[in-house]
Structures are given as C-alpha cells and as structure tokens.
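Title: Request for sanity check on tRNA N(3)-methylcytidine methyltransferase prediction

Description:
We are preparing a figure and want to confirm that the structure record we downloaded matches what your pipeline produces today. Could someone re-run it with the sequence below and paste the raw structure tokens into this thread? We only need the token string, no images.
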Amino acid sequence: MAEEAEEEDEAEYHSRDFAWEDLRDEIESDASLSHHLLSSSLPSSSIGSSSTSSSIDADAWRSFHHRHSTGRFFKERRYLLKEFPELVSCCDSVKVLEVGCGNGSTVLPILRAGRNTVVYGCDCSEDVLERAKEIVSAAKGIHIKDRFHPFLLDFSIHSFPEWLVCSSCQCSLGGKCVDFSLDGHREKPSKSNAPFMGEDQCCIGGVDFVTLIFTLSAVPFDKMSLIIERCASTLKPGGLILFRDYGLYDMTMLRFSPDQRVGSREYMRSDGTLSYFFSLDVARDLFCAAGLVTLELEYCCIRSVNRRNGKTMRRVWVHGKFQKPMPNPS
C-alpha cells in the first residue's frame, strides 16, 4: 500500500547520524510537541468499525496511487540489498512475498539481486499493480520473465490466497493450521487465479521471505497483529519477515497537527491515508505475538539536508528481521 516518497540515497541508510534517545529527550521536553505525547483518549484505531474503516483506508490508498502513478514518483529501493543481505546470499531458488508492493520500487532490486528469485507482490490498487508490471517489464539488465507475479489483494481485510500455501501444507510444515479469513472461507488455488502454477500443484509451498517495507504503518493499528500472523502463515519454517517502517519521533510524525491524531502514535493525513509510528517495544510485541523470533530490531536515524530549503531533516525508521521457528522434532 504505502510508498515512502522521501527516502534518501542508499549510502545514507542504516547509519547512526544521531542517537534516538537524544531525539526522544528533546521532543519530550518541547511543550509545543506535547500533543504527540498525550495518552490518546481514543482507542487505536478510532476511525470506525473494523471492516468499514479498512475499506475506507484502502480506497484512500487507491486514490493516492492513482494521483502518484507517474514515473516521477518511482524510486528504486536499492538500499534493501544492503539492509537485508539475505535476499542476495541465497544461491537456490528463492520465493519472496512483497506485501503492499506499490509501483515495484522494492520488487525491482530484489529481482535484480538473484536470477533464481521469484517475487509475488500484492496491493489493493489495480492501477499501481499495472504500473508495477510496466516498470518491471521495462527494466534493463535483468531477466524477469515468469519471476514477478502481482496479484490484487486488500490484505487489511482478506487472507492471502491458498495458492501461496494451502491449509494442508501449512500443517505438514509444522504450522498452526489456522484459518485467518474473516468469513471462514479462503480462496482455493486454481489456474485462473494462479496461472503460473502447474496443473498438479496444490500451492507454491510457502515463501522464504516476506517484505513489509513502509506497509504496516499504513493500516489501522488494530489490524496489525492479524496481518502479521497472516504473513507468518505464508512463510516456510526458518523463513524471515523483513521489516522497515516509520519510527517514533520521525520528522513526519512531528508535522501532524493534534486534530490528525486518531490513536496513540497513529495519524490520518488529509487524503484519508493512515500513518503509524513504531517504537521498538511495539514492533517487538507485535511480531513476537505472531510466534516469530526477533533476529534484529533497531532504530535507523538519518540526518539529511533538504536541498530545496536547506533545512535539516531527522528521519527515524525501525529496521527489523523476524524468523519463523523450525518445527520441533516429534
């Protein structure tokens, strides 16, 4: 869903330009920013009933992508390969699920990284999926035939389709065999919705990596736990969720006005899209509650200068790697 429009050059990523604790102390002592610190009297998320609010949120993101469908908005996230070297260290065939793939800014560097890598990318916007296919198909220097499979899905409401990993295969891989759909029904694999599958395949057998790159912050907070559980259900044992998103006290959080708060650390932009800002504790709790093991979790603090106005910007992101445990031997 989300696209991060203000990312920096790859050389600046994963650095420590300033200490997050120093920024926290500065923000929390500034009376003009006190509205960001108050305990919210509204339940997070407070924007309506769960199904209705998610639908509205998806509509807002579809409109966002329609407005920003030009090539100027595309910026390939090459830093991912440095931040997540696991994506390039595997020699064998690798399957990646990109959740909220947007216009392909994350998909393209992953495909460039390995000739045996296949990416399955979902988003709630048909327009942005078409744009992603155009960008990936037009990319030079890579062989992408049959290696990028975009599919339409509002993952804030619906479960992932069973052609990713069916219920019986989840059980055989040591999964919890839980139905995450809201209505008790999951989409069954078929040649019509998964034309890249062979006739005798029940599913692709799960993925090695799930990437959540500036995606989870775009959904209501009260949906995040279920979404992470669904993501974990698509992983093979030992697989990783690779996570990067907005961190607490990032510059964009401090720009929101008090009336844009819809929950604790959760804000709504004027166009109806949401943005949540993660602390390390909240991120750890969300992923651990889904049964995942924390391998890496830290703030990424970047200081850069806006070339247009000369102002210094302090950006904060949360970087994390979470692993699905191997099943216990019986």
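Thanks, this matches our download. The longest helix spans residues 50-67.
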